[in-house]
Amino acid sequence: MSSSSSSSSGGHGEKRLVNENEDREAFESSDEEPVDPSPPIPPEPMMMMMPPPPLPPPLAEKTLSPPPSVERQQQPEEGKEKEERDEYEKKYTILPKPDQSNIPLNAQEVRSDSNHPQWMKDMWAQQTKALTEEAKKELERKIYEGAIPPELSHAKPGDAIFVTFATHSVRDFAKNWVNAARRLKLEPHFVGALDEKMLEDLKSWNVPSMLLTGNSVLANRGVQFITAGSAAFKKMGTVKTKFVQDLLDMNLNPILSDADVAWMRDPRAYFNKGTYGKADILVSTDCIDVPGDKDDSNKCAHVNFNTGILHIRATEESKNFLQAWKTKVATSTIAWMRDQPAFNLLMHEGVRGHALENAIKLKDMADRGKEGFRMVYYAANATVKLGVLPNWLFGNGHSYFVQWHHKQFPEDGEPYAVHTTYQYGDDGQYAWGKRERMRQAGIWTADDREYYEDAHTKYLVVPDVFAQVKHANGPGGAKMKTVGYGNGDYRVAIERHFAEDKVRRETVRNLLALGKLLNRTIILPEPRCYCDKIWNNLNACRAPGAEKFVLPYSCPMDHIYDLPSWFRSGLKFREPGFLADSRVPDSVRNDIIRVNVERRRNSQLVLEGDGAGGEKTTTTNSFDIGEEEGKSSSSSSSSSDVQLPFGFTAAMAEEALKPFSSHAVLEFDYLAEEGVFCGFHGKEENHDFDASVQGALSHYQYYCFTEPWLASNAPRSGRRPNEPYEPQVVKRHCGEMDTSMRASGKVHLGVIEHINKKEEQNLKCTCEFGFGVPTALETVAKGPMCTHESHS
User: Fold this and answer.
1) Backbone angles phi, psi at 316, to 5 degrees
2) Which DSSP state fits 218?
3) Chain segment 129-179, per-residue pLDDT in tens
4) How far apart are CA 472 and CA 474, in angstroms?
5) Rounded to an integer, what distance in angstroms lies between the CA atom of residue 515 and that of residue 519?
6) CB neighbours (10 Å) of residue 27?
7) Segment 24-27 long-range contacts (CB within 8 Å, at least 24 positions apart)
8) How confident is the model over 616-666, as pLDDT tens digits?
9) Where are the alpha helices (DSSP H) in 627-697?
């Protein structure tokens, strides 16, 4: 498990984070792989609209699920299993291995004198020490010498065993993983401990575990949470690959997953069905193009495999590959040559271009892509047969938490698992972004009961629809609940994106202020985004490769906030949808006092909760594109228990709400505009509050659009003779770095100011920049809308 490198480098255009040497590959990497560092391979045909290529504290133990009463899932009877396998095998044949004699090995280095971009040369030049001879010897010591160790005695030869690895820094994620394994009866399972403290916890939870051979290489690593950018991450990969070797020697077939994977279904029957049953190795993908992956015709061939979900069968071919994999990670002095890049490079040895050679031939091509008939490939010089798992059933952080494919297209099936990649909210202390995504999606089970049931915690909320803008119709008066992907739709998307954020950020700031005033924990409204977050160009405000996913989407917190700041600041909050969680007692959910706030006079703002004439409606529709109109997510109504005027002060709120202090939830129906709350009791209190939330409310993100850039003749694209390709996204779109633009006053966050010209051909900059921060309460309190005598 690792954090996103996208946020760790600041993202202000100072360091290129994606391989744009071919724009189809522009955002192929997950949080574990910030780039594809391998040398360029001949490009695939361009996709439409793509620019052309250039030459926390410990948690209570009672949240852990008890061990299941059944040791392992009952296996289907052999006769039935064989009959089903035979039926599938009638519909495909195994192809002979491709001739490898005339295929040169893919280059394994980028030299300083090569004709590659400078960023790529620099990356290959980054060096680190290989493992010491002592460490290498430790990694060669086998734990299997003819007898299975007692810690693995619950697994029998031939079993598929579910395995993850954990340091104590990811203890919460290990707990979440174990809870899922027990709930789904994923037996046998095992957690490899990478330090003594983690081993102690696992023993106390009664989880099969052992301290892995080679773990000493992680000692004195200098950080608590191991991110992909830390030196310890590379060393951790050697320990993991060594243990997988040991499992294969025991004739066990590991189903490996990172600790930040959430399992939702047992995948064993799926892994064994049809063509996948012929693979030596099954691996997940960083591909975010769901329609392309469903087509199963190599449209994701340019994208990295992600070893966060990996099933390896104990074949001789797999064992030989594991030895080569472990050796490459342990002996390489290239800094980024961790386990996943090494896996990708080895799998592509002896491969023409990106696309692997088919190992299966279907008798009826109409079956292609269907369950039981996914393609299997020859890889690693045709020494292994590799299956790539579908990205909507084994989701990544984009297909699951951004596209929400399983909600938008439930007919495609419930996911088996999701790996929390493609996120931006972790740091060296903790995986904040991963945890909040899982909480928001309802798949996090490692919080203690007090998180949901603490009788002393009182809450403050604004219904989702009163923190969301009811947008005007689209171009030509067309009604647009969602935003399309036509040539001009990026304008509609970014305008709505910034308008939505302004209302949301003002609402959240006022919620935080009132939460502090009333000593209540705020529940964040569900955020609605109209532009994807990515450190690259956008196609129709969407990440390249995901051009047709539904906008708007329910965006993760790490898309719109500096998430670590929320925790460093000690802010009291709960994730969106908290009250709908079944773990919240009815005594909390149903104990709501409704506070009606007067609207600002002559306000032009219309919220989703407002009726046609601007009046408040009687229901609060939770954001969900496919949801029925009028479906209520929290029981708001036009009736209210308390009324407050626009521009109310701290003293007014305290007086009006004092009789209701014992109630579990206060629900405000309107906090969306500047001046609705006029601040605390004095200047100093306002100043201190502003300082306490500045980091949490600030977030920088550029949005650079492919469409107007192409209309401007794609400057700095490398298309024309003697024109170099500019890898820095903002500089390519605007002619200078965004740091320089911000320093010279050319950027005003949250304002559409560069693409709002009539003729796209004359644009000097084809990016916009978010996000604006609400006016400080100290300033608001002195403004013309705050004139109440009770305000000091």
Assistant:
1) -65, -35
2) G
3) 555 666 656 656 666 666 788 999 999 999 999 999 999 999 999 999 999
4) 7
5) 5
6) 27
7) 24/50, 24/53, 24/302, 24/544, 24/545, 25/302, 25/303, 26/50, 26/536, 26/537, 26/544, 26/545, 27/288, 27/534, 27/536, 27/543, 27/544, 27/545
8) 554 333 334 333 333 333 333 447 899 999 999 999 999 999 999 999 999
9) 650-657, 683-697
